[in-house]
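Action item from last week, closing it out:
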Amino acid sequence: MNPNLNKLQPYPFQRLRDLFLGITPNAAYTPINLSIGEPKHATPALIKDALINNLAGLANYPTTAGVVALRLAISSWISRRYQLPLLDPETAILPVNGSREALFAFAQAVIDSGQESQQEKPIVICPNPFYQIYEGAAFLAGAEPYFLNTLPENNHTMDFASVPENIWQRTQLIYVCSPGNPSGKVLNLAQWQQIFELADQYNFIIAADECYSEIYFDEGEPPLGALQAAHQLGRDYNNLLVFSSLSKRSNVPGMRSGFVAGDAAIIEKFLLYRTYHGCAMNPAVQAASIAAWNDELHVIENRRLYAEKFKTVTPMLENVLQVKQPDAAFYLWARTPISDTEFALQLYRDFNVTVLPGSFLAREAHGINPGENFIRLALVASLEECLEAAKRIRKLCAE
């Protein structure tokens, strides 16, 4: 077996199940689960109809690059959303089966482990707390993850100035998540400029995870994207790849549909990798994805539902937990008055509400686990359930 498999840690939700092992939640309360970022709003009818109406496509093998109509739909959406010139759908866009599989596969394609010694493995820089796929992708590509803590006192951004020169020299890939999971932090133009300049200096690739880009609270101020930042700075997309998804935007997490866009030279090689990997998108899913990327009305309504929940729930928790509304995404990242694991355990046991301890989303790095004494609440349930969960959290804090 690949020895790097032994480096993989249990997924956060497995750790949560282990934490709750043997605990019986209070049956006086109906269960409410805010632990996992799985969208619960209704899937739009136009997407389901397109899926059903194109089931005949199951009779054909799909190409890895996807149909031209899908790549055109994605290119047009990127242009509208980020005010960019159209990306070449033939060379700069690649459909993928959700951003998760692509973020993982990308490291396998781009990391050059060569004949380096154990002490000189390639570096993959990750935020901390982070989406655990980044770490697993690094290990299984034969690289070593280097975690940059994103702390409240640093405005939940990665402190690049703290990275030693010898780490930069070995860095081949950096994962950047904006809007961030779990903080919801959106990077500004100056922060993107810093990342681009470091990539120029040390010749590493930027993987920009933007799966939460369409969940925000002001229709007039959508989050800045990586491609958009590069364009505004007068740059090309050299060494820059953006990963996006329909799961959160269009409430289709089970459809597994997204895209990679950016540096055409890297996409060419990534397409070659994926051709062998065997991860072409289902033809019916491609048709449904075209319908989704071509429609914004359902996305605006989706944002309205999330905005209503944040507007109502956040003030209820602000005076019992250290928490504030994020820039974007659908998480509240709240500091707890006791340890995060004990808080989550008591909340589950006494009030039947499930949240995710922040320490499960992070690693001990530079002397601390930056997720300790935080919980992540995914406001994906209905407004009524989110309100009820907030009331129960207030009761726990009062105790």
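Closing note: The CA atoms of residues 25 and 371 lie 25 Å apart.
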